[in-house]
Write a structure and sequence with these properties.
Structural class: alpha+beta
Bound molecules: zinc ion
CATH topology: Zincin-like
Shape: globular
Radius of gyration: 15 Å
CATH class: Alpha Beta
Order of helices and strands: HEEEHEEHH
Number of domains: 1
CATH superfamily: Metalloproteases ("zincins"), catalytic domain
CATH architecture: 2-Layer Sandwich
Number of strands: 5
Number of helices: 4
Largest sheet: 3 strands, mixed
Protein backbone atom coordinates (compact mmCIF):
# COMPACT_ATOMS: atom_id res chain seq x y z
CA UNK A 1 0.00 0.00 0.00
CA UNK A 2 1.67 3.18 -1.17
CA UNK A 3 -1.21 5.50 -1.97
CA UNK A 4 -2.32 6.09 1.59
CA UNK A 5 -5.98 5.83 0.65
CA UNK A 6 -8.26 2.99 -0.24
CA UNK A 7 -11.38 2.60 -2.29
CA UNK A 8 -12.08 -0.95 -1.16
CA UNK A 9 -15.36 -1.03 0.72
CA UNK A 10 -16.90 -3.50 3.11
CA UNK A 11 -20.30 -2.06 3.98
CA UNK A 12 -20.81 1.28 2.28
CA UNK A 13 -20.07 1.92 -1.37
CA UNK A 14 -19.16 5.59 -1.06
CA UNK A 15 -18.38 5.90 -4.78
CA UNK A 16 -21.94 4.88 -5.51
CA UNK A 17 -23.35 7.15 -2.79
CA UNK A 18 -21.38 10.08 -4.21
CA UNK A 19 -22.76 9.46 -7.70
CA UNK A 20 -26.28 9.33 -6.32
CA UNK A 21 -25.89 12.51 -4.24
CA UNK A 22 -24.27 14.35 -7.12
CA UNK A 23 -27.05 13.45 -9.53
CA UNK A 24 -29.90 13.95 -7.07
CA UNK A 25 -28.92 17.07 -5.11
CA UNK A 26 -25.96 18.72 -6.80
CA UNK A 27 -27.04 18.82 -10.42
CA UNK A 28 -24.01 16.73 -11.40
CA UNK A 29 -21.60 19.54 -10.46
CA UNK A 30 -19.35 17.52 -8.17
CA UNK A 31 -16.09 16.25 -9.65
CA UNK A 32 -14.38 15.12 -6.45
CA UNK A 33 -12.92 11.68 -5.94
CA UNK A 34 -14.15 9.92 -2.80
CA UNK A 35 -11.97 7.51 -0.83
CA UNK A 36 -11.70 5.91 2.57
CA UNK A 37 -8.88 7.10 4.75
CA UNK A 38 -6.17 4.81 6.06
CA UNK A 39 -7.28 2.60 8.88
CA UNK A 40 -4.66 3.81 11.30
CA UNK A 41 -5.05 7.56 11.00
CA UNK A 42 -7.94 7.85 13.40
CA UNK A 43 -7.93 11.04 15.40
CA UNK A 44 -8.42 10.92 19.12
CA UNK A 45 -11.97 10.28 20.22
CA UNK A 46 -12.36 13.81 21.48
CA UNK A 47 -11.68 15.43 18.14
CA UNK A 48 -13.10 12.81 15.81
CA UNK A 49 -13.73 13.90 12.26
CA UNK A 50 -15.89 11.81 10.02
CA UNK A 51 -14.53 13.17 6.77
CA UNK A 52 -12.60 15.98 5.21
CA UNK A 53 -12.31 17.63 1.83
CA UNK A 54 -8.94 18.39 0.28
CA UNK A 55 -9.42 21.07 -2.41
CA UNK A 56 -5.86 20.70 -3.75
CA UNK A 57 -6.50 17.11 -4.75
CA UNK A 58 -10.28 17.54 -5.09
CA UNK A 59 -10.58 14.57 -2.82
CA UNK A 60 -13.07 13.62 -0.13
CA UNK A 61 -11.51 11.37 2.50
CA UNK A 62 -13.98 9.45 4.63
CA UNK A 63 -13.16 8.07 8.06
CA UNK A 64 -12.80 4.29 7.87
CA UNK A 65 -14.82 3.93 11.04
CA UNK A 66 -17.92 4.76 9.04
CA UNK A 67 -17.51 1.63 6.89
CA UNK A 68 -19.32 -0.41 9.47
CA UNK A 69 -22.61 -2.32 9.51
CA UNK A 70 -23.66 -0.35 12.61
CA UNK A 71 -23.59 2.88 10.62
CA UNK A 72 -26.74 3.48 8.56
CA UNK A 73 -26.37 4.45 4.90
CA UNK A 74 -28.21 7.75 5.41
CA UNK A 75 -25.54 8.84 7.86
CA UNK A 76 -22.65 7.99 5.55
CA UNK A 77 -24.50 9.84 2.78
CA UNK A 78 -25.04 12.85 5.02
CA UNK A 79 -21.34 13.07 5.89
CA UNK A 80 -20.41 12.65 2.25
CA UNK A 81 -22.97 15.22 1.14
CA UNK A 82 -21.52 17.75 3.57
CA UNK A 83 -18.05 17.35 2.05
CA UNK A 84 -19.35 17.44 -1.54
CA UNK A 85 -21.06 20.73 -0.69
CA UNK A 86 -17.67 22.10 0.32
CA UNK A 87 -16.38 21.16 -3.11
CA UNK A 88 -19.34 22.54 -5.05
CA UNK A 89 -19.82 25.76 -3.06
CA UNK A 90 -16.19 26.54 -2.31
CA UNK A 91 -15.29 28.76 0.62
CA UNK A 92 -17.48 31.82 0.96
CA UNK A 93 -16.60 35.14 2.49
CA UNK A 94 -18.62 37.08 4.99
CA UNK A 95 -19.22 40.82 4.82
CA UNK A 96 -16.34 41.42 7.22
CA UNK A 97 -13.98 39.49 4.92
CA UNK A 98 -13.61 36.44 7.18
CA UNK A 99 -13.83 32.93 5.75
CA UNK A 100 -17.29 31.46 5.89
CA UNK A 101 -17.10 27.75 5.26
CA UNK A 102 -20.61 26.98 6.51
CA UNK A 103 -22.49 30.05 5.29
CA UNK A 104 -26.22 30.47 4.85
CA UNK A 105 -26.24 28.95 1.35
CA UNK A 106 -24.24 25.99 2.64
CA UNK A 107 -26.70 25.41 5.49
CA UNK A 108 -29.67 25.83 3.19
CA UNK A 109 -28.37 23.26 0.72
CA UNK A 110 -27.31 20.90 3.48
CA UNK A 111 -30.84 20.95 4.88
CA UNK A 112 -32.25 19.76 1.52
CA UNK A 113 -30.86 16.33 2.36
CA UNK A 114 -34.02 14.38 3.33
CA UNK A 115 -32.53 12.65 6.37
CA UNK A 116 -30.75 15.76 7.63
CA UNK A 117 -32.43 15.92 11.05
CA UNK A 118 -32.18 12.17 11.56
CA UNK A 119 -28.51 12.22 10.60
CA UNK A 120 -27.76 15.07 13.01
CA UNK A 121 -29.35 13.11 15.84
CA UNK A 122 -27.42 9.99 14.89
CA UNK A 123 -24.19 12.00 14.86
CA UNK A 124 -24.66 13.06 18.47
CA UNK A 125 -25.47 9.53 19.49
CA UNK A 126 -22.53 8.11 17.54
CA UNK A 127 -20.04 10.39 19.21
CA UNK A 128 -20.96 8.77 22.51
CA UNK A 129 -20.70 5.25 21.13
CA UNK A 130 -17.62 5.51 18.95
CA UNK A 131 -15.25 3.90 21.39
CA UNK A 132 -17.12 0.61 21.09
CA UNK A 133 -17.35 0.33 17.29
ZN1 LIG B 1 -17.85 21.40 6.85
Amino acid sequence: MTTGTETETTHHDIGEYARYLNETYLGGRSRARVVWGRRRTLPSRRSIRFACYDPQRNLVIMNRKLDNAAIPAYFVEYILFHELLHEVLGIGERKDGRRDIHGSLFKLMESTFPDYEKARRFEKELCRRLGTL
